[in-house]
């Protein structure tokens, strides 16, 4: 009788440990889906942000507990054909920016620029640091300097004469100004385009800007349209590449996955209560 009680107690103990593992595994799934929903909500919030690139959440499974190793000895002359490995859940491994071209939005503002293809425009911060953007919604300040919406200069820096009549920015980045009383234009500079070996490694810093990181590599400066760098289109802006329909679908999937993990925790808790009552 004593041996039977010991066996039952040992069985209950093993099942209790399994239920606790299920609780932890389901909790990792809920945390992963919470991060997924955060990324989806950021995509939806920026559906009208110029040049915004959506984030795609990537998951990976966590470590496994190996109870029975595949290929291990099952007897002196045989091996296990299939092992027993118990997973411990999942986590978000990355939120990858998708640099797919957004649709053009014509504005007819001569200072607005859109990159048709790969690449980024440079923005000079007040500290002198250069950051990078796909948002080409530019204008001039009270000194005639070409700036972005935050008042930071567009690289390498352009100042238009006070008597400028019209501005023409060509596909290869050449900036020509037509001055009152002159027939021929004056070229005041060229707007370059920057590319990166690994653009998904750029660090998002807000205000539609990206910062160089060790993962992205150093910026490579190009003449627009050369070496596979994108052309410039004057009087247009790049819309966000977020698809509301796709994001709504992803949101529903994340919600259902979160709910199912929550139900797993509830079932595991009920089974633990049953085991405790047996004791």
Distance between the termini: 16 Å
| Structural class designation | alpha+beta
The overall strand count is: 20
Average pLDDT across residues?
90
**Rg, alpha carbons:** 29 Å
Q: Unreliable segments (pLDDT under 50, ≥5 consecutive)?
A: 1-14
Q: Can you list the strand order of the major beta sheet?
A: 8-7-11
Order of helices and strands: HEEEEEEEEEEEEEEEEEEEEH
Give the fraction of residues assigned to helices: 25-40%
As an assembly, this protein is: single chain
Explain what you see.
- This protein has a domain at 104-238.
- α1 runs antiparallel to α2.
- The protein is elongated, with a radius of gyration of 29 Å.
- The strands form nine sheets. Strands 8-7-11 form a three-stranded antiparallel beta sheet, with no helix packed on it. The protein has a three-stranded antiparallel beta sheet with strand order 12-13-14, with no helix packed on it.
- The protein has helices spanning 2-45, 244-278; strands at 55-61, 64-68, 84-87, 90-97, 104-106, 113-116, 121-124, 130-133, 139-140, 146-147, 153-154, 164-169, 174-179, 186-190, 193-195, 203-206, 209-211, 220-222, 231-234, 236-238.
- The protein contains two helices and 20 strands.
- By secondary structure, it is an alpha+beta fold.
